[in-house]
Amino acid sequence: MTDRKQTLAELKSAWLRHLNLDYRNLLWRNGLAKIPPAALELMKDKKHWGRWDENKRRILINEDLILEHPWEATLGILGHEAAHKLVSDLGGFEDRREEPHGPAFRKMGRRFGLDRFYLKACVELKDVCPQPWVAPDLPPADEGFRQILVKIKKILALSG
User: Fold this and answer.
1) For 36, which DSSP code?
2) Order of all β-strands in the sheet with 50-53
3) Please, where are the H alpha helices in 30-142?
């Protein structure tokens, strides 16, 4: 494996570890820790920032989301997909014909305090995205982590 491929593989592994911690923390903070978490995976996709795969029980997060947007946006999309997962796990659909972004989805997203910006069917990410949820007991995003993401972007740009 070349150094670039190895570095990219290590970065993806670090992203997944960080996403898993944030995801489990979200469940724990909202009294949902006993619900089995989904597997988290990275994906490449031109149309979606994230996706809940009910059949394979996994949440997929687009690698480009992490590279192109603030970490808050990544967490917002993670929360969006977690809401889909929890609706399917907890049987929140009043009717299985309900739209994927219908009342059960919005109710679940609001249950764990997801900003309504992330509760739309098509989340239009901008340069500045709102915090996905407010958790007064958590410190703000670590500036060191932001600097690491900037370095990752530069390394990936150099690797082509």
Assistant:
1) P
2) 39-43, 58-62, 50-53
3) 63-68, 71-90, 103-111
**27 Cβ contact list (under 8 Å, min separation 6):** 33, 35, 37, 82
Q: State the Rg of the chain over Cα.
A: 16
Residue where the block lists tokens 């796990």: 89
**φ, ψ dihedrals at 129, nearest 5°:** -115, 145
SS3 30: coil
d(Cα 101, Cα 79) in Å, to the nearest integer?
13
- State pLDDT tens for residues 85-120: 988 887 755 555 667 888 888 888 888 788 888 898
Most distant CA pair in the chain, distance = 51
Phi, psi of 41 (to 5 degrees): -140, 155
Measured between alpha carbons, how far is 61 from 45 in angstroms, rounded to an integer?
9
**Distance between CA atoms of residues 69 and 98, nearest Å:** 31
Tell me the per-residue pLDDT of 36-89, one tens digit each, with 9 for 90 and over: 889 999 999 988 999 999 999 999 999 988 888 888 889 999 999 999 998 888
Task: Tell me how far apart the terminal alpha carbons of the chain are, to the nearest angstrom.
Answer: 16
Say what the pTM is: 0.76
